[in-house]
Amino acid sequence: MFLNSKGYVKMFTDMMSEGFIVIDSEGKIQIYNHKAKEIFGIVYNQQISHDHGRINKGDIVIIGDNSLGRDDGNLDGKSLECLGIKDNNIEKGDAILAIGVFQQKGVSPIYKYIKSDNIVDTLKLKTDYLGINLGAIIDFVNKIITIEVGEEKFSMGYINAIGHMVILDGKTKRMKFYQAQGYTARGESIYDILKGCEYRAKGENANVLNVIGKDIFEIHKGSSTIKEFYQVAKGENISYRDEFKEINGIPTMCTLIPVDKDGVRIGAALKVEDISEIKQIIRERDKALLDLEKIEGELKEEKIFKKAFPNIIGESKEIGHVKRLALKAAKTNSTVLILGESGTGKTILGKGIHENSRFKDKPFIHVNCGAIPTTLLESELFGYEKGAFTGANKEGKIGFFEMANEGTIFLDEIGDIPLNLQVKLLQVLQEKSFYRVGGIEKVRINVRIISATNKNLEEEILKGRFREDLYYRINVFPIWIPPLRERIEDIYPLVDMILPRLCKEVGVETKRISAEALNLLTRHSWPGNVRELENILERAINLSEGNTILSKHIALDIKEETYNIKDIIPLKDAVSICEKNTIKRALKFYKGNKKKAMKALGISKTTFYEKLKRYEID
């Protein structure tokens, strides 16, 4: 009987490592465990204290908002008029820094803003305002907003959007309120505070917000996930397991379960896992890259690259960059993701990374995930116990992960792994352990994982075919191998390396290739990349009767173009047309993302926007 008491329910739910929330059929919160309070900022590390209160006339307000109206209580330009900011050009989605006095005429505000499509690394505002050194910075790269009051700094990180604010007492000029994580749950968004809502005290002795008995929409406003949660509690038949949802601006993985008693819906339960730690993984990746930059100055690059990656052929700056990254990857234990089209040499690069790593004397297990039937993939990767299924080996079988223990496993075409196995693979990455099929004993391993795919995994995530959390786990150290058409100058060293090897394999004397034949190879677009080049050269070896491969022996689908006088236009016009089309292709490829297009084109922000205007590109 004692286990039914509320005290024991609270004790057991607070022991959970995931957030756990239960509401009744009226949407009232019945359980809200400690982890959930941590995730949504209801409890947090309050390093600086202040009393509860409200904003008053004459108080000094400092605001930093990276996306107006998005996660600030639906703040808009008109809401800022209470600070003396009257600017019709400020729109939702803009980033803004503002300093002003609340509801007091005669004191001019100071503010800066940029439009939502503008691309900058930081937005800064520093000034002496009413005798106080004040400042605010939005760091768009590291996703941090910092407000400075004299020597004190109030920083908040964000995932997508955040509205940060500090209030100084108008009379004493001392801090009376600062924004902290979980402000949405506490009803302390910028909009709420400027409308006169009371804010809670902070500090060691401040009371934690008691959410039990409150309406769920008081704590979580405007989230589609919370609306679903409420609908299920009211009787809707919705349920799901481990789905990505954003609640109060925080990326989470949620499981939603109806709660019934005697066939009657009495509420719903929501399990929540915070995945914002992915940001920390990305920071660790970036730090690893920065630390390894020191190595670069000590290396005699060309000599070391040739020794380290003798099978990665090419002299272009693109392939040089690939080798540089691969050597850095080999010196770390980080998970590597190799991206590139079919035939670019992802497997060769993966093996090269292994052979230059501390695992080089250990196993290298290559698994083509796309070539193994889905029904067999789990047992092949993780093995199975004896009698696990009909037709299983009587002695059981170890999987590829156990074969690779203490070494490297290369998961080729990882984008083809089905969703149900992606969960198990994520467990291996996080916990370095798994269960064999039909097994009850946990198998622990120490394996370096290198993955490869020719798919766009970000598109696969949007289509629901690849887990976002798994993507961030495998994408700690990405390396992209450019297609052969983007490094045509590598045709020459590739032919020099491939031709003698193929002649030996075919069983003929080494043949030369004529300049005309070589020129023909450089005019092809190479959709099959290096693999296609090998096939073309092998065919040419078999077709040529002498010791020289001529252009007639090169079987490529290259159509000769015919021209007339109308095709001849001034060179300046031709360059303009080419520029316009190239910019449009870049914008289309990056789905309108101007920052990525600009970076890919290698031009400055000023030049980019001048050309958009000149060519009337929307």
Tell me the layout of helices and strands.
Elements: H1 6-14, E1 19-24, E2 29-32, H2 34-39, E3 60-65, E4 95-101, E5 110-114, E6 122-129, E7 132-139, E8 144-149, E9 152-157, E10 163-168, E11 175-178, H3 183-186, H4 190-194, H5 216-219, H6 224-234, E12 240-247, E13 250-261, E14 264-274, H7 278-296, H8 301-308, H9 317-330, E15 336-339, H10 346-355, E16 364-368, H11 374-382, H12 400-403, E17 408-412, H13 419-431, E18 433-435, E19 442-444, E20 448-453, H14 457-462, H15 468-474, E21 477-480, H16 491-506, E22 512-513, H17 515-521, H18 529-543, E23 548-549, H19 571-589, H20 594-601, H21 605-614
Parallel strand pairs: 15-20, 15-21, 16-17, 17-20, 22-23
Antiparallel strand pairs: 1-2, 1-14, 3-4, 3-10, 4-5, 6-7, 7-8, 8-9, 10-11, 12-13, 13-14, 18-19
Helix pairs in contact: 9-10, 13-15, 16-18, 19-20
What is the CATH C level class of the largest domain, in words? Alpha Beta
By DSSP, the count of extended strands is 23
- Using the coordinates shown, work out and report the CATH topology of the largest domain: Rossmann fold
N- and C-termini, Cα separation: 69 Å
Radius of gyration: 30 Å
Number of helices: 21
- The helix/strand class is alpha+beta
Flag low-confidence runs.
Answer: 559-563
Whole-number average pLDDT? Answer: 86
In helices, the fraction of residues equals 25-40%
Tell me the fraction of residues in β-strands, as a range.
15-25%
* The named CATH superfamily of the largest domain: P-loop containing nucleotide triphosphate hydrolases
Tell me the number of structural domains.
Answer: 5
